[in-house]
Specification:
With 399 residues, the chain is an alpha/beta fold. Helices cover 39% and strands 14% of the residues. The strands form 2 sheets. The chain has a 7-stranded mixed sheet, sandwiched between helices. It has a 5-stranded mixed sheet with strand order 8-9-12-11-10. It starts with 10 loop residues before the first helix and ends with a helix.
Length: 399
């Protein structure tokens, strides 16, 4: 394959052209290379490739030309030294959390995280002798206490799943580095279009490519971005031997999704801001959390870190779970799904879906109860979305 674009372009251009390589056929769209293995010209060449002495592919569990294009495009998008993609977001996150640690290490996480991320820290890492602790993401004194002793990794998500909580990434990064820790930022809700964690001091950035990158609810994918040396020495051996490899077909789908991501995220964020303002005063609501609204308790931190409010909001129904279910069941246009970042607007009930495995007392510690609904705003006409939400909120009243 021939080398593609290497100049430094702006993000939207990189998301169309970055990392592109073409075969001898000169195809316009990126090539989909479906193969498990590769051929060698000689036994000596096979030996040299397997030893890493010469470049080339050896097995698609290690890497693949289509997957490599996606990794290079994401690297350019984020301004990272290196990128690795995996079969799902959690495949990527589990690799990033488990590969660097050993018994006796310490990992600190923000209290508000995606349910599976929190589960890994709370339930799996301690099985291997890793000390873990959770901290209120906005409590800087708590961060100072938690990071007053040596720590290996710190994981934060901002805006956080499911209630759009904020974490002051730059401030936590400074404390993490003083504790000898590397900071991982889950940037899925914000996307790279609206927030740049590396500029704020992150060492690693995580994405579920299943979300805004694909944007059409079609495939699973995950990505981690970070320092080249650590990627090669720590992450690569782990993923090569454990095998969470990304399918070339899924990589190809995400490559095509990246081309339109800037347009989609901008429009979805615009729609979300309008919808949030239009439903905010409905009497069925107890609270609304949208990062772009000044009534969000963490608005100032979001405004400092993000270019816009994003595509996600959360609403709390005054009638608790019963009202929340009435709301969901009354939706006609909006779908009920635990996915997000889709072109279609989606709503879910976190405490019984995405955070179902988190004990009730731990849900409460992050402000989550059965009254909350998480909403991912899509590309539909904002008038149709508003009408559907207002109709469902009326139904939630149960009058």
């Amino acid at each position: 394959m021939t080398s593609g674009n290497t100049p430094k372009y702006r993000p939207a251009t990189n998301l169309v052209h970055g990392g592109t390589e073409r075969t001898q056929w000169g195809e316009t769209s990126e090539a989909l290379i479906l193969t498990s293995g590769y051929m060698y010209d000689s036994a000596e060449q096979a030996q040299a490739r397997m030893a890493g002495e010469i470049p080339g592919y050896v097995y698609s569990r290690y890497n693949n030309p289509t997957v490599a294009m996606l990794e290079e495009r994401l690297r350019l998008m984020e301004g990272a030294e290196a990128c690795r993609t995996m079969a799902s977001g959690m495949g990527a996150m589990s690799s990033l959390l488990f590969a660097p640690v050993q018994s006796g290490d310490r990992v600190v996480g923000a209290n508000a995280l995606f349910g599976s991320c929190r589960w890994l820290i709370a339930n799996q890492l301690p099985k291997f002798g890793v000390e873990t602790e959770f901290v209120d993401g906005m409590d800087m004194e708590a961060w100072e206490r938690a990071l007053s002793k040596p720590t290996k990794l710190v994981l934060v998500e901002s805006p956080a799943n499911p209630l759009n909580d904020a974490v002051d990434i730059a401030a936590v990064a400074e404390l993490a580095h003083k504790a000898g820790a590397q900071l991982i930022v889950d940037n899925v809700f914000a996307t790279s279009m609206l927030q740049s964690p590396f500029e704020l001091g992150a060492d690693w950035v995580f994405y579920s490519g299943t979300k805004h990158m694909d944007g059409g609810g079609r495939v699973l994918a995950g990505a981690i971005l970070g320092p080249q040396k650590d990627m090669e020495e720590i992450i690569d051996p782990y993923i090569r031997h454990t095998g969470p490899s990304l399918s070339p077909f899924n990589a190809w789908v995400v490559l095509k999704g990246l081309e339109s991501m800037p347009l989609r995220v901008a429009k979805q964020s615009e729609n979300a801001a309008i919808v949030a303002d239009r439903i905010a005063n409905h009497k069925a609501l107890r609270a609304i959390r949208y990062p772009g609204r000044k009534d969000h308790p963490h608005y100032e931190v979001h405004a400092k870190q993000m270019k816009a409010g994003g595509t996600m909001m959360a609403i709390s129904l005054a009638g608790g779970q019963e009202a929340a279910f009435r709301f969901l069941n009354a939706l006609e246009l909006v779908g009920i799904s635990n996915n997000l970042g889709d072109a279609k607007t989606l709503a879910c009930h976190p405490s019984t879906t995405t955070h179902r495995a988190v004990p009730v007392e731990e849900q409460a510690s992050m402000g989550l109860d059965a009254s909350w609904i998480r909403i991912s705003i899509g590309l539909e006409d904002v008038e149709d979305l508003t009408e559907d939400f207002i109709r469902a909120l009326d139904s939630a009243l149960g009058e």
